[in-house]
Amino acid sequence: MTEPAGWWRYSRLATLxxxxxxxxxxxxxxxxxxDRTTTTGPLASTSTVISPTTxxxxxxxxxxxxxxxxxxxxxxxxxxxxxxxxLRALRLELLTDGLHQPVAIASSFGEDRLYVAERTGIVxxxxxxxxxxxxxxxxxxxxxxxxxxxQGLLGLAFHPDDTGPQRRMYVYFSVDGDDTMLVEYRTTNxxxxxxxxxxxxxxxxxxxxxxxxxxxxxDEDRALYLSLGDGGSGGSNGQDTSNLLGGIIRIDxxxxxxxxxxxxPFSDGGGAPELWIYxxxxxxxxxxxxxxxxxxxxxxxxxxxxxxxxxEDGGANLGWSLLEGxxxxxxxxxDPKGTVLPTLEYTHDDGCSVTGGxxxxxxxxxxxxxxxxxxxxxxxxxxxxxxDGETATDQQDWTDQTGVPGQVNTFGVDNAGELYLATWSGSxxxxxxxx
Length: 435
Known about the structure:
Layout: H1 7-30, E1 43-44, E2 64-68, E3 77-81, E4 89-96, E5 102-106, E6 114-118, E7 122-126, E8 138-139, E9 153-158, E10 168-174, E11 180-189, E12 192-204, E13 216-218, E14 224-228, E15 247-251, E16 275-278, E17 285-289, E18 292-297, E19 303-310, E20 323-324, E21 327-328, E22 344-347, E23 354-359, E24 372-376, E25 382-387, E26 392-397, H2 399-402, E27 408-413, E28 419-423, E29 428-434
C-alpha cells in the first residue's frame, strides 16, 4: 500500500516533537537535584607588603542536555555533560618520598612520565603512580660538583619540538672549580641517554659558590632561557650588562654551539649579546606562560620578589643591587628610575627564600586556571595570584588546605598542564582537587 505523499515527514515531526517534550520535562523535573553547595574559598594571602584581593568564587558547573536532529530515519540522540562537584579544598597528593634533593621537574612531549633532576647529578624517571624507575635517565654524579647547597645539577628541560626517540635535553650544573655548564644530550628512547651526544653550549665562570640559579625554559619561538645568579659576589654583577651573571640569558640552541636571537636587547652591542634581562640576585626558579616570564628572585636582607616581565621587554632592569625588591639597597637614597619594580614582594617576616612556580593550565581543577603558584623555602606555605597584565590580583593562601609539605625546592608541570612540587627532603606531590 502506498503511503500518502509526505506522510513520513509528518510522522517524523511528531516523533521529534514528543522526544523533545520528554527531554524538557526530564530536565525540569531533575533540576531540583542539582548540587548548589557553596564552596568555601581559600584564605586570602596575608603578605606584609601587598594586600590581597577578594576572590570571586568560580561559577558552578551546570548540566547541559542537548538534542540533535537529522533528516534521516535514525533516532534522536541526547548528550549529557557531567558537571564537576564543587571544589571543597585543594590538596597535595604524595607520589613518592624516595627522591634525593630534587631541584627540577620536567616533562617531554607526549610522555606521561616526569623527569626529576636531583642536585647530586641524577635525573630520575617517575611514572604517574609515583614509582621511580630502577635505572635513572642520566647519571652525572662523577662530574657534578655538589659541594655547596647552591651547587650541583640545577636545571633540566627537554626541547619542545622533539617527539621521536632521540630528543634533546638540556642540563645545567656545577663542575670542579665552581664554574657552571649548560650541556645538551640526546635520548635514545624515553628511558636512556646517549652520552656520546654530549654537546657543551656554554661554560660560565663563577666567582663564588653561591647564587648559581639555573632554571631552564623554552618560549613559543623555541628560544632557550637560562637564569643566572649574580655569583654571590656582593651584587656587583647585577647592574653590569657586559656580564651574564645576575641575569636571564636567551639563546637559540640551533647554532654552533648556539646562536643569538635577533630580538635580544644587546644583539647589536651595548652588553652581552646573550643577555635578555638583568638586575637579578638569584632567580632560582622562573617560568614562562603565554608571553610572560614569572621571575622569582631570592632576596638578601629583607625582601623576596616576583616580577612578571613580557617576553617583548628584553633589556629590562629588575633593580638588584641598586634595589632589593622596591627598597633601595646599595645606595641609601637611590633613584629607581629605569628599573622594573616587583609585581609582588614580601618581607622576611613571612619567609626567607622565594620558590617560583608555574601558572596552572590543567583541566583537572578548572577553578585554578590562570593562577600562578609559588612558595617559600623556609616557610613552606602555598600561595597563588592571577596576573592581569599589570598587577597581581586574586592573591590566595592555600596552606590551610594543602598543609605545609616541607621546604619547597621546585615546581613543575606535566604535559597536561597539571601542577607538581618537590621538597628538599625528597617528596614529590601532585596538586589535586577534593570535591
